[in-house]
Amino acid sequence: MNDHTFIAARGALVVSPQTLMDDPHGQFATLRGDHPVLQLGERQFMALRASDVMVILSDPRTKPLEGRDYVRIQGVPEGAAARFLRDFFLFGSGAEHRAKRGMFARSFAHGAVRAAQPQIQAVARRIVAELPRGESFDFIDRMAARVPAEMIAAILGLPQSETSYFAPRVYAMSRAVSPVYPIDDHAEIETAVSELFRYVVDHMRIRSEQPRDDLLSRLVADWKDDPVITFSTLVHQVLGIIVGGTDTTRAAFAVLVSLLLQHPEQWTALRDDPSLIPGAVSEGLRYDPSVGSIVRFTNAPVEISGVELPAGVMLRISNMSAMRDPELYAEPDRFDIRRNDHPRLHPVFGAGAHRCIGEMLARIEMQEGLAALVAGAPAMELQTAPQLQGFGGLRQITPMQVIIR
Q1: 301: Cβ–Cβ under 8 A, 6 or more apart, which residues?
Q2: Beta strands at 380-384 and 302-304: parallel, antiparallel or unpaired
Q3: 76 vs 80: CA distance, rounded Å
Q4: At CA 230, angle to CA 226 and CA 235, rounded to 5?
Q5: Does 377 have pLDDT greater than 90?
């Protein structure tokens, strides 16, 4: 059977998700011109063109996908993972979403993150100083994973010594946010969510009895004063912040460094001119994003470049495709840290009320991490490039071997 069977009734192209796994950028480039929308499964669609993607995010006929709809459409079995997906503010809207997200807004605001920049810089420099010299090592394990994990631990008030406990469980848990729920991995995902839930509960109960000067203590104190949500819902919000603050930046930073090492003239340019670092971060986020798509839900029929979608379906907005679309970027398949055609708001972080709450933190972590590397390990060489796997949701990354001469 041809995986690219055309359904004339809806105008979308039916594509087996598996055909997009090996070379999603190439597949999107081939399909995008003639097929603005793909159908990935029952009631699941994906928009590819930049011109459509930018409009859909603010189209009132679509809304953020509610957790209950995500669980139902994806067929997530009942349990800890399903409860988390139904509860986390990422999968919510309206007043409930604002209330849950608002608990963290102050800690991730521009001013608060800027104030933490010296701490992020110190963490990055310490990690670079600890990297092995003259021997091959996994860059993701030894640096890319450590900076965001240690910073999210510091913000929440979790012991940095425990990042090695929660990080692997975060990486397993993040697989739940994929274009097609990985049912074969469900047992591992379920275990990871359950263990992380108990881990956060233990720390929050300690803060209830012995408050400290950290975000977890403030969250618990505020909740005790005004428990407008259940305690388990509060725990789920903290879980989501840990996942979002740990996994996406880990993958994005590793890919950025890999791309720079594959373009040695641009790595050298950064060493000579650190003012290029913010542009390099933006370009890495564009060229191969760790978040491949943003999920919406149609609450009314909607037309996308001539394709008619009914109400009540899941619509993925493909960042990956849009950020390689020549409608939005000149020479989109060229990695260029000096690129000057980035939109004012980077598409990878979404839009509106659901724009990524950790955008500023992620940018500064990557900028300070890169600055520490080019200054402290300028002779780093890439031995095995990592690969971002998947074409939507939170993408998974393979190991990355490097050596510092």
Answers
A1: 61, 308, 309, 310, 311
A2: unpaired
A3: 10
A4: 105
A5: yes
Domain CATH number, residue 242: 1.10.630.10
Type and span of the H or E element at 7: strand 6-7
CB-CB neighbours of 377 under 10 Å: 17
Is residue 340 included in any domain, yes or no?
yes
Residue 87's SS3 state is helix
Q: Does 1 fall in a domain?
A: no
What is the domain count for the chain? 1
Cα distance from N-terminal residue to C-terminal residue, the chain: 52
Pairing of strands 388-389, 396-397: antiparallel
Interval 288-337: pLDDT, tens = 999 999 888 999 999 999 999 999 999 999 999 999 999 999 999 999 99
Which domain range does residue 155 map to? 6-404
Q: Is residue 155, in this structure, part of any structural domain at all?
A: yes
Residue whose token pair is 């108990």? 198
The structure's pTM equals: 0.89
Do residues 351 and 358 lie in contact, with contact meaning Cβ atoms separated by under 8 Å? no
Half-sphere exposure of 327 (CA within 13 A, CB side): 14
Residue 120, in any domain of the structure: yes
Phi and psi at residue 339, in whole multiples of 5°?
-55, 135
| 381 strand-pairing partners | 403
Contacts of 251 by beta carbon, 8 Å cutoff, 6+ apart: 144, 290, 388, 395, 396, 397
Element (H, E) at 296: strand 293-298
pLDDT-based confidence at 124, cuts 50/70/90? Answer: very high
Q: Sign of the C-alpha dihedral, residues 213, 216, 218, 220? A: negative
- Residue 94 Ramachandran class (φ > 0 left, ψ -120 to 50 alpha, else beta): left
Contacts of 392 (CB under 8 A, 6+ apart): 46, 178, 179, 292, 293, 316, 318, 320
- Cβ atoms of residues 148 and 246 within 8 Å: yes
Tokens 């491949």 appear where? 292
Q: How many CB atoms lie within 10 A of CB 305?
A: 14
The three-state secondary structure class of 402 is strand
CA distance 231 to 240: 15
